[in-house]
Amino acid sequence: MAQTKKKSEHYVNNKEFLAAMVEFRKAVNKAKRDKTERPPVPNYIGECFLKIANHLSYRPNFINYTYRDDMISDGIENCLQYLDNFNPETSSNPFAYFTQIIYYAFVRRIQKEKKQTTIKQKLILDNNYDDMALQPGDEGGEFTNQFREFLKKNTTLEETVKKKPKKIKNKKKKTSSLF
Questions:
Q1: Contact 76, 55 (CB under 8 A)
Q2: pTM (2 decimals)?
């Protein structure tokens, strides 16, 4: 007996997704022509966004973050934001288009969270919490803040907290010449 390979099913069918996008775009264009209220996004398109975001969050470079749910939410929000930018006339692959949108939403969330972590660590290192931990009558040299010592030894604070310098435009006075 010859074994036949089972065709693997993808979690989002690109042809059905494209058809749903074309129908939604037609409905939006009709609403614009008729000057009526914009139609809501169909459930199927929303489910596709959710499936793409969930499956992308299980990739090795995204799986171990504690704020994975925030990443998924950001990805779905960006898909809804850029839904009208997808043009079926120029591309027949909405799966790839929205996967890229979600991917970069994940990267932006990771950057935001890393920046916040750096700020928290810098605040802890810069402030002297040892004085607050001592009770009246305690001697000053016996106690240390172990978390602060851990941060000093094991972290390198990135300079992501610095503000970008503003560009100064060179404004030259225009001299007008009179003839």
A1: no
A2: 0.71
